[in-house]
Specification:
A hairpin with a 7-residue loop joins β3 and β4 (65-73). Strands 1-6-8-7-3-4-2-5 form an eight-stranded antiparallel beta sheet, covered by helices on one side. The protein is built from two helices and eight strands, in the order ββαββββαββ. The chain has helices at 26-43, 107-119; strands spanning 4-8, 12-22, 53-57, 65-73, 85-88, 92-100, 128-132, 145-151. By secondary structure, it is α+β, with helices and mostly antiparallel strands. It has a single domain (4-151), classed as Regulatory factor, effector binding domain (Multidrug-efflux Transporter 1 Regulator Bmrr, Chain A, Alpha-Beta Barrel), CATH 3.20.80.10.
C-alpha cells in the first residue's frame, strides 16, 4: 500500500454531524447523511466539487465510538439551514493512501497509516478522513476507491 506525505488544500463543503456513532451504525449514518446533503445541494442549484467525505473525531481508544462529520465539497458557499452547515475539508500536512476494495475491509489502510506514523514518529491530530472517490451504487465492491487521510502536526 503506497503511503504519501501530502500538503492538502482545503475545499469548502456542506456538512452535517453525528455524535457517538459506532461501527455497526456507520453505513446507515453515512448513507442517510450523504443522501441528505446531495439533495440539499441539488435543491440549491449548486454543483459538487469533490469527493464526499467522512471525518472521524473524538474517537475512543479502540475506535468503537466516535463523532463524524459528513461532507460534500461544493464550488460556492451557500445559505444553510437546520443541521446542515458550511465547513471545509482538511487543509494541511497529512499522510494518505488510496484503498481499493470493500468498505468493510478498510481497516487495513488504517493499520498501514498508523504503522507508518509510528515508524516515522509523526504526530497525528486524532482526526481521520475517508474520501469516497467513486460511487458504490455503480462500482463493484472490489473496485471501490477510498482516500484515507490522517492529518499530522
Amino acid at each position: 500500500m503506497k503511503i504519501e506525505v501530502a500538503n492538502l488544500e482545503p475545499q469548502i463543503a456542506v456538512a452535517t454531524k453525528r455524535t457517538t456513532v459506532n461501527m455497526e451504525q456507520i453505513a446507515e449514518v453515512a448513507t442517510e447523511g450523504l443522501t441528505k446533503l446531495m439533495k440539499f445541494i441539488a435543491e440549491q442549484g449548486k454543483e459538487i466539487a469533490g469527493a464526499p467525505y467522512l471525518a472521524y473525531t473524538n474517537c475512543n481508544e479502540d475506535f468503537s465510538e466516535f463523532d463524524i462529520e459528513l461532507g460534500i465539497p461544493v464550488n460556492k458557499a451557500m445559505p444553510t439551514t437546520g443541521e446542515i452547515f458550511m465547513s471545509q475539508t482538511y487543509g494541511g500536512k497529512a499522510i494518505a493512501t488510496t484503498y481499493k476494495g470493500a468498505y468493510k475491509d478498510i481497516e487495513m489502510a488504517y493499520t498501514a497509516l498508523m504503522d507508518y506514523a509510528k515508524a516515522n514518529t509523526l504526530d497525528l491530530t486524532g482526526a481521520y478522513y475517508d474520501y469516497y472517490i467513486n460511487d458504490p451504487a455503480d462500482t463493484p465492491e472490489d473496485e471501490l476507491l477510498t482516500q484515507v487521510v490522517f492529518p499530522i502536526r
